Fold this protein.
Amino acid sequence: MERIAICPGSFDPVTLGHVDIISRAAKMFDHVIVAVLINFSKKSPSFSIDERIDLLKRALHGINNVEVVGFNGLLADYAKERNALALVKGLRAVSDFEYEFQMALTNKILNPELETIFLTTSAQYMYLSSSFVKQVASLGGDISSFVPECILETVKDRLLHIYQ
Ligand code: PNS
């Protein structure tokens, strides 16, 4: 049986921290579905769903067992539909823990077969978040240490376009 994992998120936009977690998950599972949340509940995304998927595909190019898709609705249901064994998420600092723990327990109730696995983020990405990438880029800062080089110009241009 193929061992399938899902790396879910907003990816608005994908960062080097996300790429690190997804590529490590791809070594542990036969197939990894990177599932991009289509409709944000409160905040409106800076990048459209198509843009976020395109950036992820470019950033993950070369990892053969990874698929990038958009998803709507409950993650627990989507995982069932795709026969996924686990959700794989990165844990940065203690500040992530409570929210992630709440989501993991909620998903466990909704889909008891589904495990949530947390990978410790790599030390150099401890501080990294999509929100800060957007803030730094919008203020003209250098984001080359935060996003993959192959998408750097697209992300920079897009954020300048939004915030100028
Ligand atoms: O990158 P994010 O914003 O932390 O990702 C959050 C995400 C997409 C994993 C979460 O919002 C989610 O799973 N949304 C789908 C709706 C759902 O299943 N909600 C109940 C789980 S708590």
In short: The pocket of 4'-phosphopantetheine is lined by residues 8-10, 37, 74-76, 103, 106-107 (CB under 6 Å).
